[in-house]
Amino acid sequence: MTKKQRKRILRIVFIIAGVTSLMFVPWVLVKAWILPLPDTIKEQVNEAIGHGFDGMIVYVNQSGKQPELYAAGWHNRENKIPADPKALFKIASISKLYIAVATAKLVKDKRLSLDKTLADYLPELEGRIANANKITLRLMVQHRSGIPNFTDTPGYWEDISRGNRETLDLVLDKPADFEPDKKYSYSNTNYLLIGEILDKTLGYSHHQYIKSEILIPLKLNNTYSLLSEVDLDDVMSGYYKGYDADIKYNDFINPAGSMVATAEDTGIFLRALNDGSLFNEGEQEIYSSIYVYEHTGLLPGYSSIARYHKDIDTVVIQFVNTGGGYTWNLSEIVYNRIVKIVRSKKAHNKM
């Protein structure tokens, strides 16, 4: 075989491989990414529904401007109830921000110590959770404990309404994922345990503490610790690709992601977290040493993004009530396009 023939064969192989790979490209993501950027956020939210979302809520808080709320699609698909920008939503792991703030406040009050271990706080777990005598509260907050993630347990999502102790049973007596502080690995179990530690330290529910120390001072009247505290009609329905029923009734009840809130309340909280007005003296320094200032949330039928963009001094909250397939990737693409629209308008106004 001549060199010319080998080159020709290789060229044909590469062409076939390229054409074959195109069969596996998620074109819905490509389309969402390459479409011309709309002029307004409202147009982008409406466009997003065309990508397969059932409903969407967006809150934008730009410094010096009145906050803006947008909604499109369905609040409830079965009953053809349009999306309501003021609807309650399962914010899932965004709840961890509130837990971390509560922890920082209690540390500042010297009711908790970041350097005490899991075994110090919950001695009954020594021998049941690997390295309990070496895992500090700080490492749990930072997801550096090595404790297995209960949501990764086979079959967990078939019943997410388990109580905290029943959920914890899923990871007891399991080997550690790694030695404490050796690396980062996101684990919902960390925050389930922190909730237990907060309850024991306070002598009452940490939900009440969060309400009195965070929600009431910020006048967050539409934020709740548990789905059971609200009228379910006010909660945006949740849907999952390939499953027809509304799954908002599935109640995730542990501290890793149980909270329910409006997009506006979530945005107000996030700005107060980032500008420091949420904290009393000395608390923000502690918080900054242990956790982050933005978060995403994901539950079956629900995805949420809560971020503050310092360069444009803007908070953008996005709720999507559809899960499965490429919906999370689509959600991120749409979110980034919304932020790009805000940046573009800010840049234009400075000209």
**What's the mean pLDDT score?**
92
Please tally the helical runs, counting DSSP H or I stretches of 4 or more residues: 12
Helix-residue proportion: 25-40%
The chain-level structural class is alpha+beta
Helix-strand pattern, N to C? HHHEEEEHHHHHHEEEHHEEEEH
Q: Which sheet architecture does the biggest sheet show?
A: 6 strands, antiparallel
Shape annotation: globular
List how many beta strands DSSP finds: 11
> For the terminal residues, how far apart are their CA atoms?
64 Å
Percentage beta strand: 5-15%
Biggest sheet, spatial arrangement of strands: 3-2-1-10-9-8
Describe the structure.
This protein has 351 residues and is of the alpha+beta class. The protein is 38% helix and 14% strand. It is built from twelve helices and eleven strands. The protein has helices at residues 3-22, 27-34, 41-49, 95-108, 118-121, 137-141, 164-168, 188-202, 206-215, 263-275, 283-290, 327-350, and strands at 55-62, 68-76, 81-82, 89-90, 223-224, 239-240, 260-261, 295-299, 302-309, 314-320, 322-323. Strand 2 (68-76) and strand 3 form a beta hairpin. Helix 2 packs parallel to helix 12 (327-350), helix 3 packs antiparallel against helix 12 and helix 4 crosses helix 8. The termini are far apart. The relative contact order is 0.18. Residues 12-24 have low confidence and may be disordered.
